[in-house]
Amino acid sequence: MSTDHLTEMIVFGVLFLLVSGMGFVAARWRRPTTMDSLDEWGLGGRSFGSWVTWFLIGGDLYTAYTFVAVPALVFGAGAAGFYAVPYTIVVYPLVFLVLIRLWSVSHVHGFVTPADFVRARFGSPTLALVIAITGIVATMPYIALQLVGIEAVLKAMGVNGHLPIIIAFAVLAAYTYQSGLRAPALIAFAKDGLIYLVIIVAVLYIPGKLGGWGHVFDAAQAKFDKTPAPSDGILLDGSNQLNYAMLALGSALALFLYPHSITGVLAGKNRDVIKRNMAALPAYSFVLGLIALLGFMAIAAGVKPVSTDGKPDTNTVVPLLFDHMFPSWFAGVAYAAIGIGALVPAAIMSIAAANLFTRNIYKEYIRPDATEKQEATVSKLVSLVVKVGAVACILLLDPEFSIDLQLIGGVIILQTLPAVALGLITRWFHRGALVAGWAAGMLAGLWMLYEIPNPAKHKVHFGGSAYRLSELGLDTTMTVYVGMLALAVNLVVAVAVTVALRLARVADGVDATRAADYLADENDPKVKDLDLAGST
Length: 536
Description:
Elements: H1 6-25, H2 38-41, H3 50-61, H4 64-77, H5 84-109, H6 114-122, H7 125-156, H8 163-179, H9 182-209, H10 213-225, H11 241-255, H12 259-266, H13 271-280, H14 283-300, E1 306-308, E2 311-313, H15 317-325, H16 328-366, H17 372-396, H18 399-414, H19 417-420, H20 431-451, E3 466-468, E4 479-481, H21 482-507
Antiparallel strand pairs: 1-2, 3-4
Helix pairs in contact: 1-8, 1-9, 1-16, 3-9, 3-12, 3-13, 3-16, 4-7, 4-14, 4-16, 5-11, 5-13, 5-14, 6-7, 7-16, 7-17, 7-18, 8-16, 8-17, 9-14, 9-16, 10-14, 11-18, 12-16, 14-15, 15-16, 16-17, 18-21, 20-21
């Protein structure tokens, strides 16, 4: 540990402890009669208003990993790293009506997880189990990657070893266990305030010290001109434009399929809260665009990533940029913003994964007669196990492999779209067809990811998410996002199997039409008697 960063360490430590204290105090914030139910512990009593929900969902979606990984991608690949900006803009109109409908039916029927909805909608515990396991598997590496953000800050301050990370997540585990979703909801105010402060100061202060924005972009272009990679640069080229668009669209479709995103939505107290948030959340996208520009600033500042075992860790470029450009005390504030930015999403993710296990595995298959108190207890314990698993990923695996897992996670969670998102619109799909489509999409996606090399990182397999269309027999150099190809396979199989089963039923003389093939809004009196358990 270097004493050169003593001021930064003190500021970082004090802010980190203050915010952690807020996590414990949160147990008394809007304190209910009891925390012994998933509604209270896992969804904050479904009572959050517009402001709390805005900060909660924003803190949930814009994480510490986003803070370091997006500019790191821009630092290494240029314009391709800006895909995160359009995807966080188009996502909100896409999910506006779907999330309002999901909130309505979940509020009336007491659903806690997306798998709860699927279980009732299609009358299939097997399909619900598939959705639950998929959500847990996709969320685990996401939690681990929050540690990557904290680890990048610690490396920039010269702190080595895993003990600080273990301590940080032990504190996180303690206040999440005690306060449930109220902890990240309260901390999100401090986290987002710090991030807005740091980014606004950075974009106003750093370019001036570097000679202006013109010099920043010129330095970036000069760097990319010297690299052998044909697709990097401050502009996209013909080979990666389609992949850029599909990656943005696929990421947008996947974002609110993640269990932690849905958990934040279900915690809102009414439909108007969700409407206002879907309209206001794009404000975060503006900040994300500014965050991405930090990658170009790091190039202009001549930042060299910290090397670990001879390999440069590009995730350290933003912390090092702050170290080079800011006074020590404000660099400490910036580091705290990144570190605290890991706590909010990690807490919500662990709660969401625990709720999936409790409601759709434990209660469905292990103890169907579990009381609300027993559900809450199991969920609290599982949230601890999930955090231990995330820490183990960092301690036992190469961090690069953890990043690969997250890459795979986006492709995996997209395969739940037909059952969850389309299921909110129609029950036309057969439950067996949805399982078949999920399996086909999963196998196709994992196979394509396996086939993608990355010579720059000396990887023969799992080298990225851009699949070459020439592999499909097309005469082109263009690539496309694996997740969208896998989703296409999923939908084709689900539609084909559903049609085949319907034709078989018609051949047997069975009427294949369905009644009440919609979800009513909560204000519709039919919603209370809505038959969600039926299946084709």
